[in-house]
Every structure is written in C-alpha cells, then in structure tokens.
Amino acid sequence: MKNFSILLYTLLVSAVLFSCDNNDSTSTIPEEELYTIAKITNDNGVELQMKSTAEMLYEGVNNVQFDIENGSLSDGGVWKIMPVMQMMMNGETAHQHSTPLRGFDVGMSNTTTGKGQILFVMPSSEMGEWTMHVSYYVNDEMEAMWVLPIDVNAVEFLTPAANYKTVIMAPIPDSDDRLILGYNFLSGTPDIGNNDYEILAFRRTPAMMSHGRTSNEHMFETYTAYNDLTFEVTPWMPSMGHSSSNNEDPLASKEGVYTGLVNFSMKGDWQLQLNVKDGEQQLIEEDGLSFYLEF
Questions:
Q1: Of 45, 94, 123, 283, which has fewest CB within 10 angstroms of its CB?
Q2: Angstrom distances, CA of residue 235 to CA of 126, 242, 271
C-alpha cells in the first residue's frame, strides 16, 4: 500500500503542481479562528494538520491551510498540494479526479503552506472519497509526503431546485472544457445588509485519458484561473419574489477571482442569478444556473 501511495503521488505531482512560489501574493483567508480538520503523521514522525476557517469542509469554496505541528522540515522547500476524489464501483476504484485550488503562498514556510482556497466540486459519499495529497520538496527532491483522508460535506437546501447550485459547472461552447465557479463571502458567512463576496472562476481541461482512469499513463484534468470574464449578478429571493438594491457586480481582483457586493435585505432563501460572458461568448444566462443559499 505504501508503494502504491508513492507511485500515485508521483503521478499526481507530474499532472498538477501547486507550489509556494505562486505569483498571487494576496491573502485569501480572513483573519479568524482556524479549526483542525484532519491530521496525520508520516513515516518520519512529522505531523501535518489541515486547518479551515469553518468547523467542517463543504462542497464549494473552503479557506484552508496546512501546518506542521510536530517534527521539522528543511528550509527553502516547495509545497505541492493535490486533492483527489477516488470514485468506487463494486468495491473497486473506477476512476479518479481532482478539484481546483488557489493561493497557498501567503506566509508559507517550512512549517506551513500558507493560506489558500480549495473549491470542492462534489461532497464525499458512499461512491467516492476525498484525500489530500501533500508533499514538501527541497531542490526538486521530495523530503516529506502525507495522504490525509477528509470528509467533504454536502450543502443541503430546504427548498432545492435543479438550477440552485453551490458549485456551478457549465460547458464552454465549441470546447471540451468546462467553466467551474464557486463563491466565498469575505466575512465568512452571509448576513443582512451589504456583503463583500468573491467568485472563483476556473477553466477545467479534461485529462488526456478519459475521466482520469487509472493506468501507468494516468493523468488528471487540469484547472487554470479563468480571467477576462464579465459578470452581471442579480440577487433574487424566490420565496418573496423580489430582488434588492445597491449591489455591485463582481470585477476581476486577482487571477481567476472576481469581487463584488451583494445586499441581502432580509434573511431567507437567496439566489445569485448569473449572466457570465467571455468576451461576446455567453457562458451562463441569468435564467439558467445560479448560486443559491439559505441563511
């Protein structure tokens, strides 16, 4: 099993690398209490903890970091992070895929990855389990690695509908790629009144092999920041049949991140109806998929 994990990790790193020398140096996590989500000690006695601004992980955007709590690592290394969903069928691995992430560069050192965001595209279930594959490299040599099993919880709605989403995945016309969107409130949770929020946008390009099936030539899909999008966002309260005033459409603020302001005039059920374009190309129409939340 250990040899399999090392082989798998080598393949993961060759497919998707996420290191500390990322060019985006803007903080992505509000300064608030962090909760330990998972922890594991590797064969060298170095303990890694995954921490989050929320008490649990959920499908959608999660603000997290990874910290060394026991043991030590050499200075000057590079962190590499890879979430892996292992889908099962009849008790065996059917296929694997990953999910987009960004950040992990603010405050990084040999004791922490720094702060970042992971957009889990689906929750854990009986059919699939998430693990976090984290490694630390010095001079291109892997000094340490960990594989952390994690639970990603589903976001459940009191009044679900087919177009109500926490994560939006939409086809990109004339392409095999897909647009992936998630949202994050900068205060941590929505409230009555003005709320600063951000939309994370990624372009998903399929793996070279269909649906990430396991083989010696296995590769995962890739996610890149989707820039140059335009957003028009209309908050709408389905149960009351009204919108709100004094909203600001999200504008590009960082690579693949668009920041706006939404005014929730009361608590309850709210849609963020989206009109999304890439230049003149329509990707999402306002009467289509929408973010949905209840608070």
A1: 45
A2: 34, 9, 6
DSSP of 49-117, one letter per residue? EEEESSSSEESEEEEEEEEEEES---TT-EEEEEEEEEEEETTEEEEEE---EEEEEET-SSSB--EEE
The rounded radius of gyration (Å) of the Cα atoms in the chain is: 19
Architecture of domain 164-294: Sandwich (2.60)
Please report which helix (H) or strand (E) contains residue 271, including its range. strand 269-278
Task: Write out the residue limits of the CATH 2.60.40 domain(s) in the chain.
Answer: 2-153, 164-294
What does the alpha-carbon distance between residue 286 and residue 230 come to, in Å, rounded to a whole number?
A: 13
Q: State the CB neighbour count (10 A cutoff) for residue 1.
A: 5
Number of CB atoms found within 10 A of residue 70's CB: 11
In order along its 295 residues, the chain shows pLDDT tens digits of 444 444 444 445 444 444 444 344 444 444 568 999 999 999 999 999 999 999 999 999 999 999 999 999 999 999 999 999 999 887 777 789 999 999 998 889 999 999 999 999 999 999 999 999 999 999 999 999 999 999 999 999 999 999 999 999 999 999 999 999 999 999 999 999 999 999 999 999 998 754 444 443 447 999 999 999 999 999 999 999 999 999 999 999 999 999 999 999 999 999 999 999 999 999 999 999 999 999 9
3-state DSSP of 172-188 = CCCCCCEEEEEEEECCC
